């Protein structure tokens, strides 16, 4: 071959690249097998005429990267979508999944290389989405695969509380997303009790095993702490935001072994931080005895801040954070399991001051709430 040229074609790793050699009168394709991903190669071709070799013709090329295929959105609900794909023959280092949010922002998620699916959560109802998936190989990314989908609709797209969430057909107790003041830019994960007394209850406090420390400061109680599937305090700021936007009832459920009692209040409100999260409640009925009405009108106190200005700090003396007065008949944020007088998780009108209640839940729902026909 005299004056010939060499060229690499079909560079992606599958099918194998071909080396194409051409001379003035002919063209030859020769497939190269067993090449590695994203690797630089140099191929050289010489012509052979009798015992003589022609001058070499060389080409340098880089093999490509194989990305995922067949990206699809399946099992699309109003708030979730399952993305599935076919992985490359050789699993990548990782995947990069991106999707646009309704607010115009791009959400980016890094996924392990061996995965073939991922569920998107926290999506907005009746909203169109587009998602892109790339394979990551070290510093390199494959071209994106994309898919589009639209989430389903809900009766109340952005529920303000668990009462509105129940109108969406949620009939079992579970973690749900609500939106403060119905604003889709203010999502909040909460636990909804959809079974007790017709359901629709938003749980804002739970004690059950002592695994979460409730002996905390003012800021912790303001912003909330714990795990909403276990023990937690949702936060005084959230309580204020919820109860200033509507009329709410409050319920306390108490359990000790086989015994179970409750206290329910027709009206419940928590003031702002400037008012020290002052408590307002009235209208008791139930089986636990009324240990909360005494605290109505009281400000919230914690170990590092006691706006009451009493001779003693109730929060420090009784190891809790609460709407103390002088000092308490209920102390549901006290020391778990403590039988020291007044310091445990106590509800005086049921078990007195020296018994620490093993299980407590405090919850709220819209005043005058009525369960929908499909509710609990």
From TrEMBL:
Residues 67-154 form the Fibronectin type-III domain. It is found in: Secreted, Extracellular space, Extracellular matrix. Residues 153-368 form the Fibrinogen C-terminal domain. Pfam families: Fibrinogen_C, fn3. Residues 17-26 have a biased composition (Low complexity). GO terms for biological process: neuron projection development; regulation of cell adhesion. SMART domains: FBG, FN3. One of its GO terms (cellular component) is extracellular space. SUPFAM superfamilies: Fibrinogen C-terminal domain-like, Fibronectin type III. Residues 1-26 are annotated as: Disordered. Keywords: Disulfide bond, EGF-like domain, Extracellular matrix, Repeat, Secreted, Signal. Its main location: secreted. This is Tenascin XB. It comes from Phyllostomus discolor.
